[in-house]
Design brief:
PmbA/TldD fold
Length: about 450
């Protein structure tokens, strides 16, 4: 199927019906999911989907058509209906397509050595079985697996608009995941671990992943509640990445414009420690968030979001760049069902120089956090949070007894403002949002016993 010709035909058809500007996004996805439980294939799903987002602009009014059918008669009727609907909308002076000088596709090959063929099912199944075996055999306290799974997707993006821009790229996504249960003295704890990569061959060894999941479950056994109080807290690189993801939501241009973010009036002001630097870069080769252009057809670019603790940029698409009079950041998403959706790309905290073991050794007393629960329970307007957590007590520079069933509470700006050390262990193998471990030396209250 020639998607470029389809998009061209849609644009011509819409223009004939009086639409002034047209944008067409076609997303084709080939997906596969395989789950193994107790050495046997439990789930095998394969599907191909093709979805579209047609943006129509007329008289400073915008409409959206979302379809998974490319019958031109149906598209023509949908465009005609939408054209009538547009006449009833309120005018918005900021509605229009990006200017030609912002449209384009970065020529650099972001996904060199692209795998042309997906991995074979039998190869995947063998890896999943080996991952389960490695976890169960790691220790006799690891009683059973909750399942080992693999997810694959090949995504083809085709984008065109009435200003003459056409762009296309494809990328793959591969992940391995396992969750196991450890038991001791009638107490059970789960442990999980995973790996994500653009390439199947880039995934970490399945036996290592199984052992790491088992180790995480075992370390939680015989945990207790810590005493209530204020402690220095080290967030491991996985939980630190989750906290960074929360910050990404607060940086969203739509939230900023609607004043529903604590960061709405913080541009150019300090929002973190002087050692904090955050970037969003879709141009790093072979990473999950990389792409040559964004969901507006705007060419991709690297951005410094926070420099030495000072907020330098929000994350915006073209529409909210105009609303906020903000520079374009190429963060429009490829969501086919929502207009003006904004997402980070490869979003990360720049690593420091200290190793995590050395950072732990530097504390006489503290909490090392390895998991956070209900991280969405944050007041976006004030920045206040209260999250469930688990991890370990730090005593005399060593990880001591495991702790669980406690809360951590504070304010997101205080959390980032009180970062004293950032480690060197950034890890993009768990997703496109990544952070090293870091130490918050004050301002976090532990709610335990």
């Amino acid at each position: 199927m020639d998607y470029k010709e389809i998009e061209k035909e849609i644009i011509i058809s819409a223009k004939k019906k009086g639409i002034e500007e047209v944008e067409v996004l076609l997303v084709k996805e080939d997906k596969r999911e395989i789950t193994v439980r107790n050495g046997r294939v439990d789930i095998l799903n394969e599907n191909i989907s093709v979805d579209s987002r047609i943006k129509l602009i007329k008289n400073k009014r915008m409409g959206l058509i979302s379809l998974n059918n490319f019958n031109m008669d149906k598209i023509g009727k949908a465009v005609a209906s939408s054209s009538e609907y547009l006449n009833m909308q309120k005018e918005d002076p900021d509605i229009n397509l990006p200017p030609e000088n912002e449209l384009g596709s970065v020529e650099e090959k972001l996904f060199i050595d692209e795998e042309k063929e997906p991995p074979l099912n039998r190869v995947i199944e063998k890896k999943l079985i080996e991952m389960e075996k490695a976890a169960i055999k790691f220790d006799n306290k690891v009683k059973y697996s909750e399942g080992a799974s693999f997810h694959y997707a090949r995504t083809n993006i085709h984008f065109a608009n009435s200003k003459g821009f056409y762009g296309h790229f494809s990328k793959t996504y591969n992940s391995l995941y396992i969750s196991v249960i450890a038991e001791n003295n009638n107490k059970r704890k789960s442990g999980e671990f995973w790996a994500e990569n653009v390439f199947f061959t880039g995934l970490e060894d399945e036996k290592l992943l199984g052992k790491l999941a088992a180790e995480r479950a075992l370390k939680k056994l015989n945990s207790k509640k810590p005493k209530t109080g204020e402690y220095p807290v080290i967030f491991d690189n996985i939980t630190a990445s989750s906290i960074l993801e929360v910050l990404g939501d607060l940086l969203n241009g739509e939230s900023i414009y609607k004043k529903s973010s604590v960061l709405a009036d913080k541009l150019g002001k300090s929002i973190g420690s002087s050692i904090l630097n955050i970037k969003d870069n879709p141009l790093i080769k072979k990473l999950l968030g990389s792409r040559p252009f964004d969901g507006d057809g705007v060419y991709s670019r690297e951005k410094n979001i926070v420099e030495d603790g000072v907020l330098k940029s929000f994350l915006v698409n073209y529409y909210y760049s105009k609303k906020l009079e903000h520079r374009i950041t190429s963060n429009a998403s490829f969501n086919t069902e929502v207009l003006n959706d904004i997402k980070p790309t490869n979003f990360y905290i720049s690593p420091g120089k200290i190793g995590e073991e050395d950072l732990i050794a530097s504390l006489n007393k503290g909490i090392y956090i390895t998991n956070i629960f209900s991280i969405d329970s944050l007041n976006h307007v004030t920045g206040d949070f209260s999250w469930g957590a688990e991890g370990f007590l730090i005593e005399k520079g060593k990880l001591n007894s495991p702790v669980s069933e406690f809360t951590i509470a504070g304010n997101i700006l205080d959390l980032f403002g009180n970062i004293r050390e950032i480690c060197d262990n950034i890890d993009f193998n768990r997703g496109q949002i990544a952070s090293p471990s870091f130490l918050v030396y004050k301002g976090i209250t532990i709610g335990g016993k």
